[in-house]
Design goal:
95 residues; mainly alpha; two-stranded parallel sheet; 2 helices; elongated
Length: 95
């Protein structure tokens, strides 16, 4: 269900209840996801506060996740095309 075949699941809880706005909450998601966190949980004690409305938090976090997924999918597609000989490595920037 999680997509993790071996090893432990690594997760964390973001606590908007400490005063994080939806934008600051979303800003916490990117580095955690980049670091390989398997799941990120919203603070269950906080529903819909004035400084961080639930709907706005969800929208901000989903925006970050969608961008990261699109970048990963583009990279996977490029690698698949290279492996199938449809794209030459000369088209890629050198490292």
């Amino acid at each position: 269900m999680s997509g993790v075949a071996k090893g432990p699941l690594i997760g964390t809880i973001i606590k908007p209840s400490v005063g994080l706005t939806p934008a600051k909450t979303a800003a916490q998601v990117k580095p955690l996801s980049d670091a390989g966190t398997d799941f990120i949980k919203d603070d269950e004690l906080m529903g819909n506060s004035p400084q961080s409305p639930f709907d706005e938090r969800v929208e901000a976090v989903v925006r970050v996740i969608k961008i990261m997924l699109m970048l990963m999918l583009m990279l996977m597609l490029m690698l698949m095309l290279m492996l199938n000989g449809q794209v030459s490595a000369c088209c890629l920037p050198s490292i």
